[in-house]
Amino acid sequence: MIDKQARKWLIAIFVVTLATRLTLAFLIPNFTYDSYFHLRQVEHITNTGLPLYEDPLSYGGRELVFLPFFHYFIALFDLFLPLELVAKIIPNLLIAGLTIIVYLLGKKITADTPAALFSALVAGFLPILFFTNALTVESLFFPLVFLAIYLFMNLPEKKYVYGYITVFLLLSLTSSATFLLLVGFGIYLLLSLVEGKKINRAELELILFSTFFYLWIQLIFFKSVLLQEGIGFIWQNIPSAIIAEYFPAISITQALVLVSIIPFVAGIWVVYRSLFQLKNTRAFLLISLVISTTILTWLRLIQFEASLGFVSIILAILFASFYQEALIFLAKTKIAHLHRRFSLALIILLLPTLVYPALAAAWQQEVPSEEEVIAFKTLQVNTPPDARVLALLKEGHLVTYYGQRKNLMDGQFALIPDIEERFADSQLLYTTSFQTQAIGIMDKYNLRYLMITSQARKRFDITIFKYFDTDCFQRIYKNETRVYKTTCTLTTLE
Amino acid sequence: MKPNDFTWSRTLERGIFNTDNPIFKYIIEHQQRYLLAVLIVVLFLPLLFNSLLGKPLLIGAESYYHLSQAQLAGWRNLEYYPLSLAQNFLPERALALLPIALAISCYFLWHWLARRWEIPASMNLFLVFFIIISPWFLYAFTTLSAYGFFTFLVLLGLVLLYQKRLLFRYLAVFPLGLAAFFDLMSGVVVLLILLLYWHSRRLKKKTKLPGVMILFVLSLLLFQWLVLKKNLVLGPFHLQSPISDLVSDLGGLQGVGLFMILLAVLGMGIIWKKRQFLGAYLFVPVLIAGYLYSTQVMFFLGMLICFFAALGFVALLEDQWILQKVKEFTCLLLILGILFSTLSYFNRYFAERPAFYALREGMNKRGEVTRAILKANYIQELFPLLEANHISLLYLTPTLKARLPADQGLLFLLKNERFKLVHSHEGSEVWVFS
């Protein structure tokens, strides 16, 4: 139970976090590029009741595979609120809700209310989670996974068993990244064995159940991907030229910026210290999760941002341990009388190192400008319904969501044959100087419309396609963003 | 089971996956007939579909490799004599029934041995069930597989070894010797089995027979290696991929399901604790090393994985869980997961092999490529066309061959080492391009 005083503080932290997030979400226009894929799925579920597994627009028509719970969850709210409003409020509400779960976990491992409140505060302003305009699966995954961890730590009480099972079922249908939890469980069992720690029987039973259930769900949903891509399904068929963007090497500097220096250093210190007294620590499971996630990231088996997000929340929880131990240490020193001021000093230290990077992360989100969105929307009137449009890889979902036209590529790579070739061709269309080469590629993909946004100009350092001339290209939209129609072909169009 | 013993409420109360459950007890008691029914269904299903769809009844490059080898049966490949005899006396369509007959024979031989070895009934039920629904088994016993025949010979040899009459026991030398003659790996496996047999007999009574057998198989092995220079493993008959050939859920046509592997890991841990069936560990390093050399060893490795998986599953069933409902659900998930791999195998098995160019497509780009292939006069023209279009099989009918010149063009180029004839019947030929 949360005492009254703590509840007030916790509600305050939650409200401040949510208010900050929502303010930023509404101040910054539109959504991050990847969000448009999810928006389209939610919209389709609201209209038809089913996810869009056979997408006629993405890559000109393809099969999609993904876990649908997140989209159904958002679609539920879409029934009585406009989608763009839901997409701004719900993810921020979910991430702000993490503060409560982190508080509960912090309290569980330290049994210290102020320490747990500090954890909640840190979790509320983690820069890596401050992408306020992102409608992504992670916004549901993170609260669910930490709720599962909290329930697991309270086993074998019956209500927690049922709670854990329910949350785990939802998690398995939300994100494949749930395997982070399972690998963490594996490390937890291994460390228990090494340390001679007695494993709770109910824990072992639920770990077995979770593993098999998770695998079963993945096999059902991703059967076609597994069969087609084999072990390569881990890397999601991402073109080799950009795989380093998704699975980069571990960067401490980036981690420091995205997690923020104080929670990062404090958390790592707690993990390091605890490793030598594992049997006694109550954060045993959390430390196992840090170890497993670090190993998986190091082996490049999980996307860096997802793993960093996951680890940063654990580090926020472990901050409670750091706070508690720091106070105990302080009490033993000659400046024990300053112990009350320690909390204040910590808040003063945390605010600039945590809140400022979080706000900066939010402002630096990659979102399309209003002008670009209008340009994508006008595709609906400027192009025929079966037109295929060239845009940047990250703008692919804008073509399908706003323009409702076929794209050449977008960020959903799974099950796309010859992805390397397609990616190279899409890059060539922006960089080649030869008109015949460009038109040859356009013929190959039956591509008749080309878009050049300010993002594309910046990305390829061009102002216009180098092969542009008025004989073969007709401008159909002119603003900062331009849309061209090609009138030439090397072969007879079918 | 008496009718009064069974009520749904009592069954559900005790749990479906509970050794005290009356349905479970009934299945264990009558396992032989139910398992046989499953075996017949899973093996006849592909045959039936192939027959209905007008496809060749025998599938797989290995089948046709053995059929061609059987025509050349001699002292260097003694093991092909039985197939050679079958080929001479049976019509070709009946040859497709051979693997099924072998599987059913193996099934009865195994049950005889299971009774003799006093394998617990629940263990036997899941071991046999896991084996017969595994993709590696289904593939091996719906094709003419050397290791399928090997299994039959080994089981026959073991049954003979456990006979009371000394003459029968000595007769075991023939099937076991023949089994050891397929390749070096089969010889090693027979040797390991005999070592286990020798170990078990040594404790009971003194007999020279196991020692004699071991020496015989060892000398056969050396003879194959040094004189006949046989390969360590037959094949390969397909493009090898160690991961997907092991895990059928990752796209391999053979292999075992992911759930089976997880259960096997669990089973391996249990054997270590219980010290029962410890001899199975003897096979682990040999088969893993063999598998890394050639994934064709999946047949043996699959058998070992099924054995460990059955142990793991029985241990899960017999274990008392605190969360009984979670146990029920976990067992159900496991069975569903294992069946999923089998269904997934059938799904791929019945999937159409796409033709590169079909008549109904009209004369599009593929039509032009097909014409270019048929008209190619030089390998420099032909090979790039085949490679660029991922064509690995060429099916030539007598009509097509009659239209093509024999001394030049495609028919002439088929003499190149990159082409291998894998099937020839009544003038129709299938060539593999590698």
Structure described in brief:
The complex is a heterodimer of chains A (494) and B (434). With 494 residues, chain A is mainly α. Helix content of chain A is 62%, strand content 5%.
Task: Describe the fold and architecture.
The complex is a heterodimer of chains A (494) and B (434). Chain A is mainly α. Chain A has 2 domains: 4-22 and 79-363, no CATH class; 370-493, Rossmann fold, CATH 3.40.50. Chain A has 20 helices and 7 strands. Chain A has helices at residues 4-27, 35-48, 69-78, 83-110, 113-124, 138-153, 158-172, 179-195, 201-229, 243-246, 252-259, 261-274, 284-298, 304-331, 339-363, 370-382, 396-401, 419-431, 435-444, 454-460; strands at 54-55, 62-63, 388-390, 406-407, 449-452, 473-478, 482-486. Chain A has a 5-stranded mixed sheet with strand order 4-3-5-7-6. A two-stranded antiparallel ribbon of chain A has the order 1-2. The radius of gyration of chain A is 25 Å and the shape is elongated. Chain B is built from 23 helices and 3 strands. In chain B, strands 1-3-2 form a 3-stranded antiparallel sheet. The radius of gyration of chain B is 25 Å and the shape is globular. Chain B starts with 7 loop residues before the first helix and ends with a strand. The A-B interface holds A 156, 161, 165, 201-202, 205-206, 208-209, 211-213, 215-216, 219-220, 223, 226-228, 230-231 and B 241, 243-244, 249-251, 258-259, 262, 316, 321-323, 326-327, 329-330, 333-334, 336-337, 340, 344, 348.
| Structural class category of chain B | mainly alpha
- Mean pLDDT rating of chain B: 80
Q: What's the overall geometry of chain B?
A: globular
Number of DSSP-assigned strands of chain B: 3
The gyration radius over C-alpha positions of chain A equals 25 Å
